[in-house]
Structures are given as structure tokens and as C-alpha cells.
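quick one, 95 residues, struct below
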Amino acid sequence: MAQEFVVPAPWAGRGWRLKIRDRERVEPPHVTLLYKTRSWRFGLRERAFLDDDPPERDVPRGLVGNLEERIEEFAAVWDRLYPENPVKSNESEDV
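---
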């Protein structure tokens, strides 16, 4: 089951959404930013965008800042939804 998060003003009113989608257990932990038909994956381990397309410059800087401030909230939800692929994995702790 997907988990949608509150997007603060003014971005929510402009059509931006934040969610952790369902059926993503084998992907790197991430939160998805959505705007119309476009989506960006923001890695919870990397704390950076995972894909080059669409370009991250198209995401409002303020929204990225809000996302970074709430990273622990997203990580907790990811860990609850996908306990077999937690944000803090044994692999990431060994690095």
C-alpha cells in the first residue's frame, strides 16, 4: 500500500505530491516526488536524486529543502513498509 505525505504550501497547491509507492521492495529506499506525469526518486540512503531524467533542477529548491528536513520521517515509513530492505542496511553500515 502506497504512503502519501503532506506537501507544504505553496507546492501542494501547484500539484506536487510526495509518496512512497507500493511494490518497491527491491529498489533502493526512496521517496517519489510527483508533478503531473513526471516523477523523481530521492534516495533515503544517498540523500540525493537517484535518476538523471527528469533533471533535478526542475524540482523547486524549497521543496527539496523540505524533503531533506523530513528525511527521518520518510525513512521510518519506508522501514515500516519494507522491513526486508531498511534504509540503514548492514551493507550501508559497513561502508
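The helical segments are 61-69, 71-81, 90-94.
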